[in-house]
Amino acid sequence: xxxxIFGGGCFWCMDPVFRALPGVETVQAGYCGxxxxxxxxxxxxxxxxxxxxxxxVDFDAGLVSYRTLCDVFFGTHDPTTLDRQGHDVGPxxxxxxxxxxxxxxxxxxxARNEAQEAFDSPICTRIEPAGKFWxxxxxxxxxxxxxxxxxxxxxxxxxxxxxxxxxxxxxxxGA
Length: 175
Description:
Blueprint: E1 2-8, H1 11-19, E2 24-32, H2 41-45, E3 52-59, H3 66-75, E4 84-85, E5 88-89, E6 95-99, H4 102-115, E7 126-129, E8 134-135, H5 143-146, H6 151-167
Parallel strand pairs: 6-7
Antiparallel strand pairs: 1-3, 1-6, 2-3, 2-8, 4-5
Helix pairs in contact: 1-6, 3-4
């Protein structure tokens, strides 16, 4: 099993996207990139810990490649907005790929460079070595699946998932 860590805005939005891909075994919401040990959601929201909301994806590289995960990452959020995704604003919503080895580092740079062709504005996604990943609180795990009727899920995540399903239909489980 391989592992990847992506920060692309709210982890509630990224979780269902990666879960929909064949070869993805687990997705865990959490925090990475900061200095504070075992940060809480409230601490990260203070915007002074250096942590980014992210997802840790465990995947079978024989079924889905790291590069494909990077392509889905760039295709499902706006990597041109600094520390912002829609109405979610702050450094905890930064666009970041946390790489776990040099191969991921090289592939992430390649994916970012190729993705730039699809955007008029410069991509500001950071590519950084992964520090310690801290799992988010249990109520953040699989938030969309557990709370589909919640307002944020209805007005932000559901439309994002519809766009994702349309754009990446060939990659989806059962496709």
